[in-house]
Design a protein that fits this description.
- The protein is α+β, with helices and mostly antiparallel strands.
- Among the domains are: about 200 residues, Trna Endonuclease, Chain: A, domain 1 (3-Layer(aba) Sandwich), CATH 3.40.1350; about 60 residues, no CATH class.
- It contains 10 helices and 26 strands.
- The chain has a 7-stranded mixed beta sheet. It has a 5-stranded mixed beta sheet with strand order 17-18-19-20-21, with helices on both faces. A 5-stranded antiparallel beta sheet has the order 25-24-22-23-26, with no helix packed on it.
- Helix 2 crosses helix 4.
């Protein structure tokens, strides 16, 4: 099926034109005897004028035609109709249009070759209805570009997969004729939007007069269709996109500079806070060391030895000493200044040089003021992971947490040496004071300690029940048992 042929006397004839392009009627070649001397423009084999069931006029090769490109095309009637629409729209747009134009070297064949009457430009209008890969359509476009022929591809299929790979548009048929439905866009401030449908002739007029150009959008297409790698748009929309990209780049640059300024100020504030915290912690540590020295001076000789042995028998002290030796290679002993509020109700562990190294089992409710400044920079030890977790949870609830967090470890072998809050909490005790796991104390001279509000206090037997012994339970360090008789807090 072809629309162009060669008449022996009239030259090139076109079946789709009313006058065949030579001032003759269709009836001058159709169904006449003898047959009109019409041959193929490529192989020169005889051709016959024919009409389809829909009235489409075309030329067909006579039997026994050679291996001709036109004869092998086997194009559908829909494809021929679309080529006629393209040729008609190109002529309406003011261009000269020819169908089925072949390259001089035969490397390509244009469905419709539109050209400037003055010969300034040539453009191939390609009707593509059959499936084709994006690579093939790009290669065919490149072959035409190599000969100075630009190209635009057209399809009236619903979703051609190659649309946007090369300069292309999708067409739709309406009451007013064929119109461009997809591929023509406009920029609306911050995104590309689809343009209203325009007649095919108007679109081609804009293309021929350089009012619209192929463009690779840098901003995402915002209309509810697929994203296209290449679109058709006007020059002022391209400049609007460039201006938007410049503004967006400038906005991002200013935002980055502002973030950098904020981060710099935050770093300075953090550095100042770190310096102040470090100075505060050093001062608190110096005061704690001085207090420990004074406590050792106040307890001399046998009194000091008895107090040291009594403090070493406190729950968890011996395990804490072994833990620091094993995990941190520190040799420590229990501090004498346990009654000082600076330790937050915990037991200080002092190094050989007299400097505090850690605090065992501080109470979260007593971590305030001087105790907070001191404990914020020290290692905190707990007998169990549950105690560590409760301390961390309670201090966070009271917003008494250092900027860099607590340094915490617990004495359980399963997680010794870890930092942070343990995952498994210990069961909550129903009694306000911890009860030893052994039996009742039967010592003649019990050495008693009572934990009151999380802080250990020395105690001694009493003849009468006191308010403290009615609420809390004392334990004996000598036997490890609970002291069930009346007791009272001692001055020591």
């Amino acid at each position: 099926m072809a629309f162009r042929a060669v008449h022996a006397e009239w030259g090139t004839v076109f079946s789709h034109l009313p006058d065949l392009g030579c001032g003759r009627a269709w009836e001058a070649v159709w169904k006449i005897r003898p047959p009109a001397p019409i041959t193929c423009v490529e192989c020169r084999h005889p051709m016959h004028p024919k009409t389809s069931e829909r009235g489409l006029r075309f030329f067909a090769h006579a039997p026994h035609a050679p291996d001709c490109e036109i004869a092998r095309q086997g194009e559908s009637e829909a494809h021929h109709l679309l080529k006629l629409e393209l040729a008609s729209a190109a002529r309406q747009a003011g261009a000269h249009a020819e169908l089925e134009v072949r390259a001089p070297d035969g490397s390509w064949r244009a469905d419709v070759l539109a050209s400037d009457p003055a010969g300034a430009w040539r453009m191939a209008l390609e009707a593509q209805l059959s499936p084709i890969t994006a690579a093939d359509i790009a290669e065919r476009t490149a072959r035409m570009d190599a000969h100075g022929v630009t190209c635009c591809w057209f399809s009236d299929r619903a979703r051609p997969p190659w649309l946007g790979t090369v300069p292309s548009v999708r067409l739709v048929a309406g009451d007013d004729g064929v119109a461009v439905a997809e591929g023509l866009v406009r920029f609306t401030g911050c995104s590309w939007q689809t343009a209203p449908q325009v007649p095919l002739a108007d679109f081609l007029r804009w293309v021929f007069t350089c009012q619209v150009f192929p463009h690779d959008p840098s901003v995402r297409l915002g209309y509810p269709q697929r994203q296209l790698a290449q679109v058709w748009t006007a020059l002022h929309y391209i400049r609007a996109e460039e201006a938007y990209l410049w503004r967006e780049e400038e906005r991002q640059r200013q935002a980055a500079e502002q973030r950098a300024r904020f981060e710099e100020r935050a770093d300075r504030r953090r550095a100042d806070a770190d310096r102040k915290n470090a100075a505060s912690r050093r001062a608190a540590l110096e005061r704690a060391a001085a207090g420990e020295i004074q406590a050792r001076r106040d307890n001399l000789g046998a009194a000091r030895a008895r107090l040291h042995d009594k403090l070493m028998r406190r729950p968890g002290v011996q395990q804490a000493v072994e833990h620091l030796a094993r995990e941190h290679h520190l040799t420590v002993t229990v501090g004498m200044s346990t009654t000082e509020t600076r330790w937050g109700g915990g037991t200080p562990l002092i190094g050989p040089d007299g400097t505090p190294a850690a605090v065992l089992s501080p109470a979260s409710g007593l971590v305030r003021g001087e105790a907070f400044r001191l404990l914020a920079g020290m290692l905190l030890l707990f007998e169990t992971a549950g105690e560590q977790q409760r301390f961390d949870r309670n201090t966070r609830r009271r917003r008494k947490v250092p900027i860099d967090g607590w340094r915490m470890e617990h004495l359980s072998e399963a997680t010794s040496g870890t930092t942070g809050t343990a995952a498994v909490p210990a069961p909550r005790r129903a009694h306000p004071g911890p009860r030893p796991s052994g039996g009742p104390c039967s010592c003649t001279k019990p050495e008693l300690t009572a934990v009151i509000m999380g802080q250990p206090h020395p105690a001694e037997p009493s003849e009468q029940m006191t308010p403290a012994s009615a609420v809390y339970t004392a334990s004996c360090h000598a036997c490890g048992g609970a002291y069930e008789k009346p007791w009272r807090r001692s001055a020591t």
